[in-house]
Amino acid sequence: MENLENNVNVMPRIGDKAPAFEAVTTQGKISFPSDFKGKWVILFSHPADFTPVCTSEFMTFGKMAAEYEALNCQLIGLSIDGLYSHIAWLRTIKEKIEYKGMKDIEIKFPLIEDVSMKVAKAYGMVQPGESETQAVRAVFFIDPKGTIRTIIYYPLSLGRNFDEIKRILIGLQTADNFKVALPADWRPGDDVIVPTAGSCGTAKDRMEDKSGELTCYDWFFCTKKLSKEEVEKKLGK
Ligand code: BEZ
Fold first, then answer.
1. What is the pTM of this model?
2. Is 222 a catalytic residue?
3. Which strands, in side-by-side order, build the sheet including 73-79?
4. What is the Cα gyration radius of the chain?
5. Does residue 52 line the site of ligand 1, with CB under 6 A?
6. Pocket-testing residue among 44, 53, 130, ligand 1, by greatest number of atoms within 8 A of Cβ
7. Residue 50 alpha carbon to ligand 1 centre in Å
């Protein structure tokens, strides 16, 4: 509890259980992770309501919300602002802002009010060298078992790449479902990497693969085809 409430030095790590919390949000109270059982969660923070970079990010996430839903993923935002600020900002976005062809964007996912910084500190979102009063742009990918699977931190001045955020989610789900690893810049439809140990026989078997399914660049680096359709079917897109 000490850690959860006071320590800005706590940095959750990949493979850790995501810290549990209760919070007030624009969609009512939430208990995390119990309210989101069986779902992937992207928990992300932004520095402040009524700021331009954050507005561009929320509009982008809002526009993509259905794509995350189709991937069984709940978006949850957070900043060190109060509930009424959140409500007023999201209303302004919906009613007034037109940006890059996006307009009338309604944010339906919960946005946590965290004036006490309790949640932000538990997730290492307050990084005093960057700001003592605002959260950095953190993105936590949490799997349906409540385990942190990927973490990205961006500074205050740089908006996130939302294609990459979606690519990471799809990549994690693909790696889990097909028991494969994914090479640099992988996207659905690209070849995937088969595990080195165990399931595909010895290194010699793999190099001399008779099935014609594997392409081996060396004994430790073999790929196989995995079509975009197979990935989309499995991930429920
Ligand atoms: C922004 O979202 O525009 C922003 C927020 C905090 C610091 C710098 C930029």
1. 0.93
2. no
3. 28-32, 21-25, 111-113, 73-79, 40-45, 137-142, 148-154
4. 20
5. yes
6. 53
7. 9
The one-digit pLDDT tens for each residue of the chain (237 residues) are 444 455 777 799 999 999 999 999 999 999 999 999 999 999 999 999 999 999 999 999 999 999 999 999 999 999 999 999 999 999 999 999 999 999 999 999 999 999 999 999 999 999 999 999 999 999 999 999 999 999 999 999 999 999 999 999 999 999 999 999 999 999 999 999 998 765 555 666 666 676 789 999 999 999 999 999 999 999 976
What residue spans define the domains of the chain? 2-165, 179-234
**CATH class of the structural domain 2-165:** alpha beta
Cα–Cα distance for residue pair 40/46, rounded to 1 Å: 20
Whole-number Å distance, alpha carbon 111 to ligand 1 midpoint, is 17
CATH architecture of 179-234: 2-Layer Sandwich (3.30)
